[in-house]
Specification:
By secondary structure, the chain is of the alpha+beta class. The chain contains 1 helix and 9 strands; from the N terminus they run H-E-E-E-E-E-E-E-E-E. Strands 3, 4, 6, 7 and 8 form a 5-stranded antiparallel beta sheet that branches. Strands 2-1-9-5 form a 4-stranded antiparallel beta sheet, with no helix packed on it. The longest helix has 23 residues. The radius of gyration is 27 Å and the shape is rod-shaped. The model has no long low-confidence stretch (mean pLDDT 83).
Length: 171
């Protein structure tokens, strides 16, 4: 237990105006385990307070996520047979959400998220091309983790049509 001579068992005296004794929090231990917060019997108060603090932070993050519509915007560019890239990203997605782009075929690309944050029936995704040759671009939410991007030019599915093209995703 480090510098503790023995485990302290503090008692609370509600009649005292001030605390008379100060107990080191690493010398006070849990008398029983808590399966929800995932600490065991004998854990120090210092560790339990850290666990509680982390749990509160996670709950706060979840509440912020639920209380706001999430969005992501950026400018997409695609060249040759390369996967698209995105710049100028603005996002209110959770900080642990990441994404990658992949090239699947001529004029077809996937945006894949590391978590299932999309809803194919309620997520709004749109891409507008500013290239005069393209007459159709589409974004389709195909799963909880993927958006399919398609570019159709005058001669059919085509690459090289996205040049700083605005993308907006609203979850």
């Amino acid at each position: 237990m480090g510098k503790c001579k023995e485990t302290n068992k503090p008692t609370v005296d509600e009649t005292q105006i001030e605390c008379c004794n100060i107990y080191r929090s690493n010398c006070v231990v849990a008398s029983e385990a808590d399966t929800y917060l995932k600490y065991g019997k004998g854990e120090t108060l210092t560790k339990i307070l850290k666990i509680i603090s982390d749990a509160i932070k996670a709950i706060r993050q979840d509440l912020l996520y639920v209380s706001k519509r999430r969005f992501m915007t950026g400018l997409i560019t695609q060249v040759s047979g390369d996967a698209p890239t995105i710049s100028g990203v603005e996002s209110t997605l959770l900080s642990n959400v990441t994404y990658t782009f992949s090239y699947t075929a001529t004029g077809k690309y996937l945006m894949t998220f590391n978590q299932g944050i999309l809803n194919p029936t309620t997520t709004y995704a749109t891409l507008v091309t500013n290239d005069v040759e393209a007459y159709l671009t589409s974004c389709k939410v195909i799963s909880t983790t993927q958006i399919e991007i398609t570019c159709l030019g005058y001669s059919g599915l085509s690459d090289n049509l996205l040049l700083n093209s605005p993308l907006m995703i609203r979850i």
